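yo

u said u wanted the structure for the complex thing, so here. seqs first:
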Amino acid sequence: MKTPSFYVVGNLKMNMLSHEEAEQYILVLKRELKGRKYRFTKGILCPPFLYLREFAQLPTGLESGAQDVFWEKSGAYTGEISPLMLKNAGAGSVIIGHSERRALQGETNEIVKQKVTTALKHLLVPIVCIGETNEERLRQDTDRILTDQVQSIFSDVSRLQAEKIILAYEPRWAIGTDLLPTSQEILAVRVLIRKILTELFDADLAEKITVIYGGSVKSAFLPTVSWEGGMDGVLVGRESLFPYEIVKMMNMFEEHGEQEIMNQ
Ligand code: PGA
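structre next:
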């Protein structure tokens, strides 16, 4: 029997303008989490690099991650951040290929692949974003876009490494817009990803890969996204700025996990 396992990933983006603000956030979070224990749910908070030190001290059940990484470990790369720096600052995972980076920094599938390979090599869990734009969706090109992205991400990794990757399906048109795909649309992507991974590896591995959903997530949407949409968790932008919402989502997943165990 499979033990349920869920992720709530908070992408804090370029928010919190001082160390004091970051410390305040953590203080509130700790208060909200007091006395709570999680069996099935893991929280990952990804602050700007500058605050990773503060976020290294999160309560049990939560850990810190980064929002990006460079593919070399040190050297003349102005403005970039090394996977080793992230590890040394306490990060256990890193978001790669977020649509804002793909759109604003021109990150291609090739760059994303390089970053994934580097993260895995340095034992950081890559949380890799995939997703179609609104135009691609209207052209009914979603499946092809997602297939290209997933194939590229997994093209240079071993089976053992593949199992560590967390895929985050984030339709670009749903980010920051309050739009949400239907649970059927989300489930269809879940099935598509499983099919691609079965072809690349096998059904057993395809089943093991964690896939989460991102794009305008609020706690109220968890039933659509996860219970009905089949996702193993959520990647949260705006709502992650409220520690209360993060804890609420973790609690909802936890209760859902309990329920699943009871129904087995
Ligand atoms: P949002 O952002 O929740 O604010 O839509 C999600 C994301 O960009 O990961």
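The CA atoms of residues 70 and 81 lie 5 Å apart. Strands lie at 6-11, 41-46, 62-66, 93-96, 125-130, 166-169, 210-214, 233-236.
cya
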